[in-house]
Each structure stands twice: as structure tokens, then as C-alpha cells.
Amino acid sequence: MIIDRHQLATPTEVVMPSWVPYRPAFFAPYIGMLFMTWLLPVAIRDAGQFRACLRANICAWLLVMPWWMLTPTTLLRPPLPEGSWADAFQFLWAVDQPCNVMPCAHGIGPVVAAWFAGRNRPAWRWPLAGMLALGLPSIALVWQHRPIDILLGTVAAAIGITFGEAMNRRDLARIEAG
User: Fold this and answer.
1) What 3-state class would DSSP assign to 91?
2) I need a labelling partner for 5 at 20 to 30 A (CA). Which of 95, 156, 169, 170 fits?
């Protein structure tokens, strides 16, 4: 939020590609993705995997935050939808300003949490993959970020996961060497 409100440079205005439709009905999967970030790690039973998940998230966020500070971006949004979605989007847009568009961090937490929860609970892997397959595109379909921004955020999440897994292996090796 601090980076959102106090940018060091004038943000570059980016535009959603014309081939991305605006679909307010994808608000629900989008919000579900945000809840995944906070609720899914609680389901990780293994303490090492939980720490790896936290480390992965921190690493991924540390990759995207400097980008926001050095090259701030803002996204033009469509008019507020009419009808039943108007209040939800009015709240969302008041709370989440269209700043820090590239790369997208809205997918980092869900991707990282799904990875580690899926490793810890193998029966959840496919349902979590399905949730991500619906949820990640929803970020673009509600015009919070462009597809390229989501891809870059997912790359940051993958780097974070790699780091978290490596730190977990290192910790396990230390315990075994004991």
C-alpha cells in the first residue's frame, strides 16, 4: 500500500490488450484467489514445508517490489459495471488502486500456497491446479492486470518456490547431519 500511494516516479500508463474482455462475473474467482494466499498455507501440516512456503512468498515479493518502485505502472480501467457487480467493483477499486500493475503480485500468493499445499496434501493437487486455472485468468478478466503482468508474477512465484524448496532441502540436510 505504501508503494501504491507514494511512488518515486510518475507511473507509466499501460492499457489492457483489446483481446481481453472485461467480465465482472469473474470477481468471485478473483477474490477467491486472494483468500487462497492467506488460508491455504494454514493447511500445510509439515513445519518445514510451511516455512518453505513463507520463504517462497517473501522471495517472490522481493522480486516484484523493486520493479514497482523503479518502473511504476498504472492501468486504465473500464467504467464501473452496472447492476449487481457495481458495489463490489466500487469497493475493490477504492481499496486496490490501479498501481503496481507490472508485474502482478495477485497471483504470487495463490501459486506459492497451492504449490506447497499440494506437496503436503497430494489429493489436493488437481483441485488446486483447477482453481489456479480459473483464478489466474480472472485477474485479467476483472481488469486488475494484463496477461503479461500475470505471467511475470507467476515467474516470480516460480523463482520463489525454487528458493523456498532449496532452503527446505538445506534445512533438512542440516537436521540429518545433526
Assistant:
1) helix
2) 156
- Asked if the structure places residue 18 within a domain, the reply is no
pLDDT in tens, 12-57: 899 999 999 999 889 999 999 889 999 999 999 999 999 999 999 9
pLDDT number for residue 90? 85
Query: Distance of alpha carbon 120 from its chain centroid, rounded?
Result: 20
Q: Where are the alpha helices (DSSP H) in 17-146?
A: 27-39, 47-70, 86-95, 108-120, 125-141
Cell of 63: 522480486
On whether residue 17 sits in a domain, the answer given is no
Domains held by the chain: number: 1
Phi, then psi, of 104 in degrees rounded to 5? -85, 125
Distance CA 38, CA 44 (A): 12
* Residue stretches of the chain with pLDDT short of 70: 1-8
Residue 80 lies in a domain: no
Residue 103 in any domain: the answer is: yes
Quote the pTM value. Answer: 0.89
Q: Residue 144: give the domain boundaries.
A: 23-74+94-177
Can you tell me the distance from the alpha carbon of 100 to that of 76, in angstroms, rounded to the nearest whole number?
12
Rounded-to-integer distance, Cα 27 and Cα 141, Å: 8
